[in-house]
Amino acid sequence: MKKEDTLFCNKCGKRILMENGLLKEDCVKITKSWGYFSDKDGRRDTFCLCESCYDEITAAFVLPVPQEEQTEYV
Question: How far, in Å, CA of 69 to CA of 62, rounded?
Answer without folding.
Answer: 22
